[in-house]
Amino acid sequence: MRAFTSEWVKLSRRATLLGFGGIMIAFTLLFTILALEGAGGRSIDLDGSGSETSATTALLSLPEGSVFVVTDMAAFFGIVALALFASNLAGEFHRGTIRMLFVTEPNRLAVLAGKLLALSSFVAAAIAATLATSIGAGVLMADRAGVETAAWWTADGLTAIGTTYLDLTAAAFIPALIGATIAVLTRSTTIAISVGLGWFILAETLLGAFWGGLSRWGPAAASNAIAVGGTDRVGMMGAAAPGISHATAILLALGYSVAALIITSTVLSRRDVTS
Amino acid sequence: MLLGLIEPSSGQGEVLGHPIGRPAAYLHRVGALIEAPAFYPTLTGQANLQVFARLGGHDRGRIPELLEVVGLRERGGDRYSSYSLGMKQRLGIALALLPDPDLLILDEPTNGLDPQGIVEIRSLLMRLGAAGKTVFVSSHLLAEIQAACDSIVMIDHGGVIFSGSMTELLARNSPTIRAAAHDAAHTARLIELVAEAGYPATRVNGAIEIVAPAHWTAELNRLAWQAGITLGELQATSADLEQAFFAMTGDTRKGVS
Predict the structure, then answer these.
(1) B166 lies in a domain?
(2) Residue A211 has what DSSP assignment?
(3) Total domain count for chain B?
(4) CATH for B209
(5) pTM confidence score
(6) Tens digits of per-residue pLDDT, B73-117?
(7) A271 touches B at CB < 8 Å
(8) Which domain holds residue B126?
(9) Low-confidence residues of chain A, pLDDT below 50?
(10) Sign, CA torsion B73/B75/B79/B80
């Protein structure tokens, strides 16, 4: 608990709030506005595929219409979460503050647990704020776009909001925890973020072209599958990997998370901390 | 290693009665400043101390007092990135004092400080020592060590070449007694007396310098009085720490070769 509250002193600084939480909210707001504008009749190619947006007034008027846009931001949330976790942990080594953290609290696993919990709560809060912002913007723009929002507040609609929030948060934790592991292994902010983003944005897709299993069972695929609620949902930023159910994706995510936690805690607790 | 950051490869040791292999048993009673101070640049000095106070479960109410002690009361609300090297060093010392430690381990605590700051920090460390706290200082500034420390461990090429009290070290390394006969004509006889007692003496600017322990000063005074020589000058001078260090490391090198 002490490590958790200590970490929040750092997370509550303006640079972190704006640099991570603010960017998540700002981009989601932009995406929501463009999606609703597109649904309202403007021709907008949101995903750069050359085809117009898949967000129609009919889709957005469904009970799950309130979270239609934000669901497609899952990959972006994961990237931001990865950058946050990786920069936080690698930064402690880069600045040399890791030494004083471990002198102040010799139980290194307690420091790690507090850090990860605080960072996770930050990501969870940012996603909640992002979701609220997107829904709020949708409500404000609904009339203009010709979207009917009554279904959003039905039991199905509220369930969709809750489920989407949990899925988005769980999906973001996979790249976040892997980013933390890379950060502890490399002790370099630049390398950790580069490697992490490189894998989640590019490498897994490219390698998946040679080995199909990777595009089904890889961490990025699992994260995407969780975010879209399984393989039967398709979002604007790309389809989930075929053949992975939501439950399977959750199990995969647990596996990756546990592996990342074991590696991170083992390395952090056993390695000497030098200047 | 004392702070639990590096695992000992061999050997044993204790800090505050606990083995160094179990740092959690004693680190809550230890404050430390390791090498260059490291803090979060975008946080204020005060917020930086809050990070560590919360983590260690220390009294956050002490933070304003500690900033006052290290002379940062006016700048505690400023970002750490705007601090000068000396201010960063002061904040590092404030952090070391945060747990109200029984043992304070400071690595080059006066690094980057101006002369006034050096005097203030030295005074602070001596006050802490007088209050019953153990202050362990690692420094290359030997004059500072000599001015502030009671005990010293001298290390050369990774090996301990001396461990003991500062007084003992300074007395052991070329202690000198300087004496001068009131009547210059008695100088030769004074040298004879010293030589008969078994100590070498050399004439320096009308006086003589004797390589002998400081406590022999009284004996020399008695011998001169018995010989009818009035001393116009008599004082024991110790080598300073720098001289002692070079004398000892020089001996060590000879021994090695």
Answers:
(1) no
(2) -
(3) 2
(4) 3.30.70
(5) 0.79
(6) 888 889 999 988 888 888 998 999 998 898 998 888 887 778 887
(7) no
(8) 14-149
(9) 232-241
(10) negative
